[in-house]
Design goal:
- The structure is a single chain.
- By secondary structure, the protein is of the alpha+beta class.
- The protein has 2 domains: 25-191, GAF domain (Beta-Lactamase, 2-Layer Sandwich); 204-366, Alpha-Beta Plaits (2-Layer Sandwich).
- Helix content is 49%, strand content 23%.
- It has 10 helices and 14 strands.
- The strands form 3 sheets. It has a 6-stranded antiparallel sheet, with helices on both faces.
Protein backbone atom coordinates (compact mmCIF):
# COMPACT_ATOMS: atom_id res chain seq x y z
CA UNK A 1 0.00 0.00 0.00
CA UNK A 2 2.78 2.36 0.95
CA UNK A 3 4.60 1.63 -2.28
CA UNK A 4 1.46 2.41 -4.32
CA UNK A 5 0.96 5.70 -2.46
CA UNK A 6 4.57 6.70 -2.95
CA UNK A 7 4.36 5.84 -6.62
CA UNK A 8 1.19 7.92 -6.98
CA UNK A 9 2.81 10.87 -5.21
CA UNK A 10 5.87 10.50 -7.43
CA UNK A 11 3.70 10.54 -10.55
CA UNK A 12 1.77 13.62 -9.38
CA UNK A 13 4.98 15.45 -8.48
CA UNK A 14 6.56 14.45 -11.77
CA UNK A 15 3.49 15.70 -13.65
CA UNK A 16 3.56 18.98 -11.71
CA UNK A 17 7.25 19.46 -12.48
CA UNK A 18 6.72 18.72 -16.17
CA UNK A 19 3.86 21.23 -16.29
CA UNK A 20 5.94 23.85 -14.47
CA UNK A 21 8.91 23.19 -16.77
CA UNK A 22 6.71 23.50 -19.86
CA UNK A 23 5.26 26.75 -18.53
CA UNK A 24 8.73 28.06 -17.72
CA UNK A 25 9.95 27.11 -21.20
CA UNK A 26 6.94 28.86 -22.75
CA UNK A 27 7.60 32.04 -20.74
CA UNK A 28 11.30 31.97 -21.61
CA UNK A 29 10.48 31.64 -25.30
CA UNK A 30 7.97 34.50 -25.02
CA UNK A 31 10.49 36.89 -23.48
CA UNK A 32 13.27 35.90 -25.88
CA UNK A 33 10.94 36.73 -28.79
CA UNK A 34 9.83 39.94 -27.07
CA UNK A 35 13.44 41.02 -26.64
CA UNK A 36 14.19 40.32 -30.30
CA UNK A 37 11.13 42.29 -31.45
CA UNK A 38 11.86 45.25 -29.17
CA UNK A 39 15.50 45.51 -30.22
CA UNK A 40 14.83 45.05 -33.94
CA UNK A 41 13.89 48.72 -34.45
CA UNK A 42 14.70 52.21 -33.18
CA UNK A 43 11.41 53.68 -34.40
CA UNK A 44 9.37 54.83 -31.43
CA UNK A 45 5.93 53.97 -32.86
CA UNK A 46 7.03 50.48 -33.89
CA UNK A 47 8.31 49.83 -30.37
CA UNK A 48 4.96 50.99 -28.93
CA UNK A 49 3.13 48.57 -31.23
CA UNK A 50 5.40 45.71 -30.13
CA UNK A 51 4.78 46.51 -26.45
CA UNK A 52 1.02 46.60 -27.04
CA UNK A 53 0.99 43.30 -28.92
CA UNK A 54 3.21 41.50 -26.40
CA UNK A 55 1.36 42.87 -23.35
CA UNK A 56 -2.03 41.76 -24.67
CA UNK A 57 -0.64 38.35 -25.54
CA UNK A 58 0.74 38.04 -22.03
CA UNK A 59 -2.44 39.11 -20.20
CA UNK A 60 -5.85 39.13 -21.87
CA UNK A 61 -7.72 42.25 -20.82
CA UNK A 62 -10.33 44.73 -22.11
CA UNK A 63 -8.10 47.81 -22.24
CA UNK A 64 -4.45 48.74 -22.11
CA UNK A 65 -2.47 51.97 -22.01
CA UNK A 66 1.13 53.12 -21.91
CA UNK A 67 1.99 56.51 -20.44
CA UNK A 68 5.36 58.23 -20.60
CA UNK A 69 6.63 60.79 -18.13
CA UNK A 70 7.32 64.37 -19.20
CA UNK A 71 9.93 65.19 -16.58
CA UNK A 72 9.88 68.96 -17.19
CA UNK A 73 6.21 69.39 -16.23
CA UNK A 74 5.94 66.18 -14.16
CA UNK A 75 3.00 64.90 -16.18
CA UNK A 76 2.15 61.53 -17.68
CA UNK A 77 0.91 61.53 -21.27
CA UNK A 78 -0.76 58.63 -23.04
CA UNK A 79 1.37 57.53 -26.00
CA UNK A 80 -0.47 54.29 -26.79
CA UNK A 81 -3.82 52.84 -25.78
CA UNK A 82 -6.27 50.12 -26.74
CA UNK A 83 -9.92 49.86 -25.79
CA UNK A 84 -10.35 53.42 -24.45
CA UNK A 85 -11.21 56.13 -26.99
CA UNK A 86 -10.21 59.71 -26.22
CA UNK A 87 -7.71 58.77 -23.54
CA UNK A 88 -4.75 60.30 -25.41
CA UNK A 89 -6.06 63.79 -24.69
CA UNK A 90 -5.72 63.25 -20.94
CA UNK A 91 -2.68 64.41 -18.97
CA UNK A 92 -2.04 63.08 -15.47
CA UNK A 93 0.02 64.85 -12.85
CA UNK A 94 2.58 62.65 -11.12
CA UNK A 95 1.02 61.51 -7.84
CA UNK A 96 -2.55 61.81 -9.15
CA UNK A 97 -4.65 58.79 -10.09
CA UNK A 98 -3.49 55.18 -10.22
CA UNK A 99 -0.85 55.76 -12.91
CA UNK A 100 0.35 58.93 -11.18
CA UNK A 101 0.75 57.08 -7.87
CA UNK A 102 2.75 54.29 -9.54
CA UNK A 103 4.96 56.84 -11.34
CA UNK A 104 5.62 58.69 -8.09
CA UNK A 105 6.35 55.66 -5.91
CA UNK A 106 7.95 53.41 -8.52
CA UNK A 107 5.88 50.53 -7.11
CA UNK A 108 3.50 48.21 -9.02
CA UNK A 109 -0.15 48.15 -8.02
CA UNK A 110 -3.03 45.68 -8.30
CA UNK A 111 -6.55 46.93 -7.62
CA UNK A 112 -9.28 44.30 -7.82
CA UNK A 113 -12.22 46.67 -7.19
CA UNK A 114 -11.59 50.19 -8.41
CA UNK A 115 -14.67 51.53 -6.57
CA UNK A 116 -12.93 50.95 -3.26
CA UNK A 117 -9.73 52.84 -4.12
CA UNK A 118 -9.62 56.60 -3.66
CA UNK A 119 -6.60 56.96 -5.93
CA UNK A 120 -8.65 56.17 -9.02
CA UNK A 121 -9.36 59.20 -11.20
CA UNK A 122 -12.99 58.77 -12.28
CA UNK A 123 -12.71 61.66 -14.73
CA UNK A 124 -10.88 59.33 -17.12
CA UNK A 125 -13.89 56.98 -17.31
CA UNK A 126 -16.23 59.94 -17.85
CA UNK A 127 -14.13 61.22 -20.75
CA UNK A 128 -13.64 57.81 -22.39
CA UNK A 129 -17.08 56.36 -21.46
CA UNK A 130 -15.26 53.24 -20.36
CA UNK A 131 -16.08 51.34 -17.17
CA UNK A 132 -12.97 50.40 -15.22
CA UNK A 133 -13.39 47.52 -12.78
CA UNK A 134 -9.85 46.40 -11.99
CA UNK A 135 -6.33 47.59 -12.77
CA UNK A 136 -2.81 46.21 -12.90
CA UNK A 137 -0.29 49.04 -13.19
CA UNK A 138 3.50 48.72 -13.26
CA UNK A 139 6.23 51.37 -13.53
CA UNK A 140 8.60 51.46 -16.50
CA UNK A 141 12.01 52.01 -14.93
CA UNK A 142 15.38 52.45 -16.61
CA UNK A 143 18.58 52.99 -14.62
CA UNK A 144 16.56 53.59 -11.43
CA UNK A 145 14.58 56.36 -13.17
CA UNK A 146 10.84 56.00 -13.81
CA UNK A 147 10.11 56.91 -17.43
CA UNK A 148 6.47 55.81 -17.60
CA UNK A 149 3.83 53.29 -16.57
CA UNK A 150 1.96 50.42 -18.21
CA UNK A 151 -1.68 49.80 -17.27
CA UNK A 152 -3.77 46.69 -17.90
CA UNK A 153 -7.48 47.21 -17.27
CA UNK A 154 -10.27 44.67 -16.65
CA UNK A 155 -8.82 41.19 -17.04
CA UNK A 156 -11.02 39.19 -19.38
CA UNK A 157 -13.75 36.86 -18.08
CA UNK A 158 -13.81 39.05 -14.94
CA UNK A 159 -10.81 37.18 -13.58
CA UNK A 160 -8.75 38.98 -10.92
CA UNK A 161 -5.23 40.21 -11.63
CA UNK A 162 -2.70 38.33 -9.50
CA UNK A 163 0.96 38.36 -8.51
CA UNK A 164 1.87 36.13 -11.45
CA UNK A 165 0.38 38.69 -13.86
CA UNK A 166 2.34 41.41 -12.10
CA UNK A 167 5.63 39.51 -12.25
CA UNK A 168 5.21 38.70 -15.94
CA UNK A 169 4.29 42.29 -16.82
CA UNK A 170 7.29 43.63 -14.89
CA UNK A 171 9.59 41.39 -16.92
CA UNK A 172 8.08 42.75 -20.13
CA UNK A 173 8.40 46.41 -19.06
CA UNK A 174 12.02 45.81 -18.05
CA UNK A 175 12.66 44.90 -21.68
CA UNK A 176 10.44 47.74 -22.90
CA UNK A 177 12.26 50.33 -20.78
CA UNK A 178 15.58 49.61 -22.49
CA UNK A 179 13.98 49.71 -25.96
CA UNK A 180 12.13 52.97 -25.24
CA UNK A 181 15.27 54.62 -23.88
CA UNK A 182 17.27 53.54 -26.95
CA UNK A 183 14.58 54.91 -29.26
CA UNK A 184 14.40 58.16 -27.29
CA UNK A 185 18.18 58.59 -27.48
CA UNK A 186 18.16 57.86 -31.22
CA UNK A 187 15.35 60.39 -31.73
CA UNK A 188 17.24 63.04 -29.76
CA UNK A 189 20.43 62.43 -31.74
CA UNK A 190 18.52 62.56 -35.02
CA UNK A 191 16.80 65.79 -34.00
CA UNK A 192 20.13 67.42 -33.19
CA UNK A 193 21.08 67.12 -36.85
CA UNK A 194 17.90 68.74 -38.19
CA UNK A 195 16.66 70.94 -35.34
CA UNK A 196 17.55 74.44 -34.24
CA UNK A 197 18.87 74.28 -30.66
CA UNK A 198 17.03 77.38 -29.46
CA UNK A 199 13.57 77.25 -31.03
CA UNK A 200 13.37 73.46 -31.66
CA UNK A 201 12.16 74.27 -35.18
CA UNK A 202 13.87 72.75 -38.19
CA UNK A 203 17.24 74.29 -39.04
CA UNK A 204 18.58 75.72 -42.31
CA UNK A 205 20.30 72.45 -43.31
CA UNK A 206 17.10 70.45 -43.01
CA UNK A 207 15.10 73.16 -44.79
CA UNK A 208 17.45 72.75 -47.74
CA UNK A 209 16.67 69.01 -47.89
CA UNK A 210 12.93 69.56 -47.40
CA UNK A 211 12.73 72.03 -50.28
CA UNK A 212 14.45 69.57 -52.61
CA UNK A 213 11.94 66.89 -51.65
CA UNK A 214 8.88 69.15 -51.90
CA UNK A 215 9.83 70.70 -55.25
CA UNK A 216 10.52 67.25 -56.70
CA UNK A 217 7.08 66.19 -55.49
CA UNK A 218 5.51 69.24 -57.15
CA UNK A 219 7.22 68.38 -60.43
CA UNK A 220 6.14 64.76 -60.23
CA UNK A 221 2.47 65.43 -59.45
CA UNK A 222 2.00 68.87 -60.98
CA UNK A 223 1.18 70.42 -57.61
CA UNK A 224 2.04 73.77 -56.02
CA UNK A 225 3.74 75.07 -52.91
CA UNK A 226 4.38 78.44 -51.34
CA UNK A 227 7.23 79.76 -49.24
CA UNK A 228 7.02 82.49 -46.60
CA UNK A 229 10.22 84.29 -45.59
CA UNK A 230 9.97 86.70 -42.67
CA UNK A 231 12.14 88.71 -40.35
CA UNK A 232 11.26 90.29 -36.99
CA UNK A 233 11.26 94.09 -37.10
CA UNK A 234 13.71 95.95 -34.85
CA UNK A 235 14.85 92.73 -33.21
CA UNK A 236 18.33 94.19 -32.67
CA UNK A 237 16.71 96.81 -30.43
CA UNK A 238 15.41 94.05 -28.13
CA UNK A 239 18.91 92.58 -27.80
CA UNK A 240 20.50 95.99 -27.25
CA UNK A 241 18.00 97.17 -24.62
CA UNK A 242 17.00 93.95 -22.84
CA UNK A 243 19.95 91.64 -23.54
CA UNK A 244 20.50 88.59 -25.69
CA UNK A 245 18.78 86.25 -23.21
CA UNK A 246 15.53 88.18 -23.63
CA UNK A 247 16.08 88.20 -27.38
CA UNK A 248 16.38 84.42 -27.35
CA UNK A 249 13.14 84.15 -25.39
CA UNK A 250 11.40 86.31 -28.00
CA UNK A 251 12.51 83.89 -30.73
CA UNK A 252 11.17 80.94 -28.73
CA UNK A 253 7.81 82.71 -28.41
CA UNK A 254 7.81 83.38 -32.16
CA UNK A 255 8.31 79.65 -32.74
CA UNK A 256 5.33 78.84 -30.49
CA UNK A 257 3.11 81.31 -32.37
CA UNK A 258 4.08 79.72 -35.68
CA UNK A 259 3.29 76.22 -34.43
CA UNK A 260 -0.08 77.34 -33.05
CA UNK A 261 -1.12 79.07 -36.28
CA UNK A 262 0.07 76.59 -38.90
CA UNK A 263 -0.96 73.11 -40.00
CA UNK A 264 0.86 69.92 -39.12
CA UNK A 265 1.88 69.48 -42.77
CA UNK A 266 3.52 72.92 -42.93
CA UNK A 267 7.29 73.00 -42.48
CA UNK A 268 8.67 75.68 -40.16
CA UNK A 269 12.38 76.49 -39.98
CA UNK A 270 14.62 79.04 -38.37
CA UNK A 271 16.69 80.37 -41.25
CA UNK A 272 19.17 82.23 -39.08
CA UNK A 273 19.14 85.01 -36.49
CA UNK A 274 15.59 86.39 -36.39
CA UNK A 275 14.69 85.10 -39.86
CA UNK A 276 12.17 82.29 -40.32
CA UNK A 277 10.92 80.31 -43.30
CA UNK A 278 7.60 78.48 -43.68
CA UNK A 279 7.03 75.98 -46.48
CA UNK A 280 3.35 75.45 -47.32
CA UNK A 281 2.89 72.23 -49.35
CA UNK A 282 -0.10 72.01 -51.71
CA UNK A 283 -0.78 75.72 -51.16
CA UNK A 284 -1.14 78.34 -53.89
CA UNK A 285 0.01 81.94 -53.45
CA UNK A 286 -3.50 83.28 -52.86
CA UNK A 287 -3.99 80.95 -49.89
CA UNK A 288 -0.43 81.64 -48.70
CA UNK A 289 -1.25 85.36 -48.56
CA UNK A 290 -4.21 84.69 -46.25
CA UNK A 291 -2.08 82.46 -44.03
CA UNK A 292 0.69 85.08 -43.92
CA UNK A 293 -1.71 87.84 -42.92
CA UNK A 294 -2.98 85.60 -40.12
CA UNK A 295 0.59 85.07 -38.89
CA UNK A 296 1.28 88.79 -39.23
CA UNK A 297 -1.77 89.61 -37.13
CA UNK A 298 -0.96 86.99 -34.46
CA UNK A 299 2.65 88.15 -34.07
CA UNK A 300 1.59 91.79 -33.86
CA UNK A 301 -1.10 91.08 -31.26
CA UNK A 302 1.18 89.02 -29.03
CA UNK A 303 2.73 90.51 -25.90
CA UNK A 304 6.29 89.21 -25.86
CA UNK A 305 8.19 88.57 -22.61
CA UNK A 306 5.02 88.81 -20.56
CA UNK A 307 6.39 86.40 -17.96
CA UNK A 308 9.36 88.74 -17.52
CA UNK A 309 6.87 91.63 -17.06
CA UNK A 310 8.21 93.48 -20.09
CA UNK A 311 5.18 92.99 -22.39
CA UNK A 312 6.91 94.05 -25.60
CA UNK A 313 4.90 94.49 -28.80
CA UNK A 314 6.62 93.54 -32.05
CA UNK A 315 5.94 93.21 -35.75
CA UNK A 316 7.49 91.38 -38.69
CA UNK A 317 8.10 91.86 -42.41
CA UNK A 318 7.03 89.05 -44.74
CA UNK A 319 7.90 87.93 -48.26
CA UNK A 320 6.02 85.28 -50.26
CA UNK A 321 6.99 83.29 -53.34
CA UNK A 322 5.32 80.28 -54.92
CA UNK A 323 6.14 77.31 -57.10
CA UNK A 324 5.60 77.37 -60.08
CA UNK A 325 4.11 80.87 -60.20
CA UNK A 326 7.32 82.69 -59.25
CA UNK A 327 10.15 80.17 -59.40
CA UNK A 328 10.95 76.68 -60.66
CA UNK A 329 13.99 75.97 -58.50
CA UNK A 330 14.70 75.88 -54.80
CA UNK A 331 17.33 78.58 -55.06
CA UNK A 332 15.07 80.99 -56.96
CA UNK A 333 12.13 80.34 -54.65
CA UNK A 334 14.12 81.26 -51.53
CA UNK A 335 15.80 84.20 -53.28
CA UNK A 336 12.53 85.73 -54.47
CA UNK A 337 10.81 85.28 -51.10
CA UNK A 338 13.86 86.88 -49.45
CA UNK A 339 13.73 89.78 -51.91
CA UNK A 340 10.02 90.24 -51.24
CA UNK A 341 10.75 90.32 -47.50
CA UNK A 342 13.51 92.89 -48.10
CA UNK A 343 11.04 95.07 -50.01
CA UNK A 344 8.67 94.86 -47.04
CA UNK A 345 11.53 96.01 -44.80
CA UNK A 346 12.60 98.92 -46.99
CA UNK A 347 8.99 100.00 -47.60
CA UNK A 348 8.37 100.71 -43.93
CA UNK A 349 8.37 97.24 -42.31
CA UNK A 350 5.34 95.55 -40.68
CA UNK A 351 3.82 94.39 -43.98
CA UNK A 352 3.56 91.56 -46.50
CA UNK A 353 5.10 91.60 -50.00
CA UNK A 354 4.68 89.07 -52.81
CA UNK A 355 7.18 88.22 -55.52
CA UNK A 356 6.18 89.05 -59.10
CA UNK A 357 5.45 86.28 -61.55
CA UNK A 358 8.31 84.64 -63.42
CA UNK A 359 7.92 86.76 -66.54
CA UNK A 360 8.82 89.80 -64.46
CA UNK A 361 11.96 88.06 -63.16
CA UNK A 362 12.96 89.25 -59.70
CA UNK A 363 10.54 92.13 -59.22
CA UNK A 364 8.37 92.08 -56.13
CA UNK A 365 5.21 93.88 -55.14
CA UNK A 366 3.78 95.05 -51.85
CA UNK A 367 0.54 93.59 -50.55
Amino acid sequence: MKTAQLLQRYRLENSRLRTALAQRSKELSFFINSGKALTSTLEFNKILRVIMERALRLIKCDAWSLLLLDEEVQELRFVAAKGTKGVKKIRLKVGHGIAGWVAKTGQPLIIQDIRKDRRFNRAADRITRFKTRSVLCVPIVNKKRTIGVLEMINKQNRKPFDETDQDLLRKLVDQAAIALERASLYERMSNLAITDDLTKLFNFRYLDQILDREINRCRRYGSVLSLIFFDMDYFKHVNDVHGHLMGSKVLIEVAHILIENLRDVDIIARYGGDEFVVVLPETNVETAVRITHRLHKSLKAHEFLKEERLQIKMSASFGIAGYPEHAMTKRDLVRLADQAMYLAKTSGRDQVCIAEKRQARSRVRAH
